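User: Sequence for PH domain-containing protein below. Tokens please.
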Amino acid sequence: MGILNALAGNLQQVGNDQLAQQYGPFLFDGEQIQSGYQLIRDAVVFTNMRIIFVDKQGATGAKARYRTIHLDSIVDVEAETAGAVADDSEINITYLKDVYQRKTGSETLDTVTLEFPKRFDIAPIYRQLGQLAMQNRQRINAR
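Assistant: Structure tokens for PH domain-containing protein:
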């Protein structure tokens, strides 16, 4: 079932020990892995500071691109649960793409979608990111 989910584009949860072994060298000082998910070779790693997207490239996967969404830039989160048949669950994360534009009021937003298998409970991730988005909005609008 894991291969079918991967071919369908669904993320599968990976243990923190395995994530630390693979991606530990790319963590910042004081950064800790909270959870992570893998899609064949690519991965999404949640830490206490950011979400890291790992895009393994090439035939061997030796080359990789690491992209980050800092947690303090997340401003909205949407969840879509799986349907009765072959649907998957999704979480859409909207974030401020250019944090330096906050001062001018011309923010640029972007969205990333994470797809999970239908039996995966997305509620804890949604709650955590949603609460974070509310805190960020309050902080940003308090200025």
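The chain has one domain: 2-141.
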